[in-house]
Amino acid sequence: MVAIETSQEIQKYEQFLRETVQPDLLKAIEERNKLSEECEQYNSLLVTCSKIKAANLKSTELRVDIGQRVFVNAQVDNCEKVIVKLTDDLFAELTIDRAIIFIEKRITLLKKEIERLGTVAANCQSTMTLMLSMPSHQTHLKPTTVKSLLTIGSRGKRKLAINQETLAVLSALINLLTRELLLRCSKANTKGQQICLNDFKKVIAQLMLDFA
């Protein structure tokens, strides 16, 4: 019975990895890479606009990326205005001063979103690492280890007598509780860092209620 319940828990975690964590990780990485490329393009445009403004250029020559990292030389006869991508397929013609203001704000927003997606990816990765590190064929604590801990804890007190079946059930419950606790701590760790005591404090009360 214990073995069946443990196997079901393992299948539940594996399903959670396949259907939720891994897709979220891939989506976060894909969106972060896309925004990073967009941010790079805005940075390049900002440099060009800043040079035009600083030199007070009326016309200039540029190398234009036409896609797939292919560049061509272009002659700009009027440097007073520039066409800027606002969002998606929406573009606007702005003066150099307005363009610089918009681009700087856009880069700031993009960097914040890139940082957020990086945190999401780190959390997904830490969750996957944690769950994949869980043994699929045995529990974290063996019944013999649990028995040793119980023996140490009851020293100087009444001798604790526990049969093998009860010990197996107790060991399964301890490992189930440990796995669930670590999983919830990983989700609560929004900074993608090592699990710490504060993460335990965030989830322990609700965990006790759920297992009551």
Question: Can you characterise this structure?
Answer:
The structure is a single chain. The chain has 212 residues and is mainly α. It has helices at 2-55, 96-132, 143-153, 164-188, 197-211; strands at 60-65, 71-76, 81-87, 90-95. The protein has 2 domains: 1-136, Orthogonal Bundle (Helix Hairpins), CATH 1.10.287.370; 138-212, Histone, subunit A (Orthogonal Bundle). Helices cover 67% and strands 12% of the residues. A two-stranded antiparallel ribbon has the order 1-2. It has a two-stranded antiparallel ribbon with strand order 3-4. The longest helix has 54 residues, at 2-55. The mean pLDDT is 79.
Helix-strand blueprint:
Elements: H1 2-55, E1 60-65, E2 71-76, E3 81-87, E4 90-95, H2 96-132, H3 143-153, H4 164-188, H5 197-211
Antiparallel strand pairs: 1-2, 3-4
